[in-house]
Amino acid sequence: MDVINGLATGFGVALQWKSLLFCFVGVLTGTLVGVLPGLGPVATVSLLLPVTFYMDPLSAIIMLSGIYYGAMYGGSTSAILINLPGEAASVVTAIDGYQMARQGRAGVALGMSAFGSFIGGVAGVVGLMLLAPPLSEFALRFGPPEYFALAVFGLTLVSYLSSGSMSKAFAMAGLGLFLGTIGVDGLNGTARFTFDTVTLMDGVNLIPIVMGIYGIGEVLHNIDEPASRQVFATRIGRLLPTVKEWAEAKWAIIRGTVTGFFLGLVPGGGAILASFVSYATEKRLSDTPEKFGTGMIAGVAGPETANNAATSSAFIPLLTLGLPANAVMAVLMGALMIHGVRPSPQLIVEHGALFWGVVASMFIGNVMLVILNVPLIGIWVRLLRVRYSILMPMILLFCLIGAYTMKSNVVDVYIMGAFGVLGYLMKKYRYDAAPLVLAYVLGPLLEESLRRSLLMSEGSTLIFFQRPLSAVVLGLAAVVVVLGVLPALKKRTARLKEAVAVAD
Amino acid sequence: MRTVDSLAASLALVILGVAIAIYAREFDLGTFAQPGAGFMPALAGLVIAGCAAAGIFEAIRGHGHAPHGEALWRLATLWQQVLVLAIVFAFGALLEPVGFVPCAVVLIVVAARVLGRESWRNSLVWAAVLTAASYVLFAMLLKVELPRGLLS
Lengths: 504, 152
Hints:
Chain A has helices at residues 2-14, 17-35, 41-52, 57-82, 93-102, 106-139, 144-161, 166-181, 206-224, 243-265, 270-285, 298-313, 315-321, 327-338, 347-350, 352-373, 377-383, 388-407, 411-428, 434-456, 463-466, 468-503, and strands at 183-184, 191-192.
């Protein structure tokens, strides 16, 4: 019954005109950046973060979440029509979606993505609503050792699942941890790496880091590799899938919802991984796997459902444990903290209206998105023609305003510029930014829980292994590291054996 | 070239990591049983250095990760990247003394005309539109203090 009461409270606040307005602004902006290649959800959420300083926390979080799940809807539009994913979670949608567009079935592909996204998104919110309260109640029993273990596990998994080599991912996690330690140490007040400047006393802020890497860095990278964007000159045609097409996509949608939901919970998993796994699953289970890549509707419906289910469930670790599962959640966590709301197991109890308001707004937002993405699809198709030469000055201007207005301090503008260079180099050398951002956000928690745990145990590191949950979670983290290192070791031994065999 | 570039990046990270770890000793490392303020940064520095060193071995042995990155400095486009950074830093330096409106206008005109190769007319129109829109959004709707600079 708590759920019913909660939902009643939630819809009570989410249906106020202000919440509706910010929800609409959020999903609209989300769809927009999803459609436009070159601007992803992480960059947009951080670009609009400064705007939310001047709102109440509920409106802020409703709008920022709307951007995130709205981007998942928009991403498929450019993937299908111009074979260029608007954001990373729509990469696989382009494979069969673009083929469908070439066969004159663009409308059906777009329609199916929108409906699949809706089903996945709403099912994910239902899961969030049912799972979050019991999970956070359970998490109330967690002490510093459990948090330490979870933070270690989260960072390990993010590095393991990130694109590219694991050593690079861990190096970036290390860099994030380091950045998180800059400033005054919370436990004993030591000023670390401030180089006697006042500006660095409260650390390097998340906003210039994220806007630098994802905003400026992306602009710098785009100069080398300008994305060509030619709208496939085709009629959109019929949007509503037929009964037969629904039948073909039915299982893809159901499986996509389930895989997406669970992968969204995993740190470093999220929407991108969910869409890839869904596509691979559909291809493997299909009677005609060879037809994938030629315009299979299941190859569009599955991944698009999965990435939306994952965006909804990604809120669970943040809102119940205070642990962000991906870079967008890390920025959202930053937004909540700015408003004095610290995500933790107490959040649902202490800020019930906020939690249920966000849940209710996600239902409303998903309905808005179906309307925006089915009957109004024509608007977005026209938007695909917006030139990057106009978009790029806008991105620059927004980054600059955002970095400056955060504290009315130009030093943050310079810090953002520096991280822009770093972000560009990271892209060039294939270093994933997600481990850095997550480690930066989790670093202080990791350090504090480590030091508090050791104070509790009077210096005995055994405390992490005597408490069952932290022992299990740390064990899992160790397994992940072994999984990451093992293939390389195996190859090396194989090569050694080969060398020995040749020598013989 | 690519391997050399990639090695340089890994090497730079090793140096950074070691430097962090050494500098962290200034803030009381503590012990494993009682970590001090320097413990975490030192650990982070060692993680960076260790992983980057592992990356060097991977690069030399070349297993698995053939493309280590794209060719880095394309001289033909490098000036554009330098210009973007110049815009960012110049905006920071001039925002408070000169004020938001002139800075924004110049930024958009330069970015659209020089980097985007838009016509002068288009660049100026967009500069006017975007500056006005952001001014309305931030200064009027959100009541953010944007520096007035010369206009004050």
